[in-house]
Amino acid sequence: MRRVSDPQVNPPKSVSRWPIVLVVALAFAIRLGWVLTRSADEGALRSLPDQREYLELGRNLLAGHGLVFHDERFDADVRAFRTPGYPILIAMCGGSVRAVCIVQAAFDASTVLAVYVLARRWLSGRVSLLAAVIVAANPFLIYFSGLLLSETLFIAMLAWGMAMIVRPRARVAGAALLALSVLVRPGALVLPTAIAIVAAVARGGGWRRALLHAAVAAGLTALVLTPWAWRNHRVLGAWIWTTTNGGFTMYDGFNPNATGASDQRFVTEMAGQLRAMSEVERSDYLSRLARQFIVEHPGRVIALALAKLGRTWSPAPLSREYGRSAKIVTVALAYAVPLFVLAAAGLWVGRALSRTVKLLLLVPAIYFSVAHAASVGSLRYRLPADVPMAVLAACAAMSRVECRKSEM
Question: Are 367 and 245 contacting, i.e. CB atoms less than 8 angstroms apart?
Answer without folding.
Answer: no
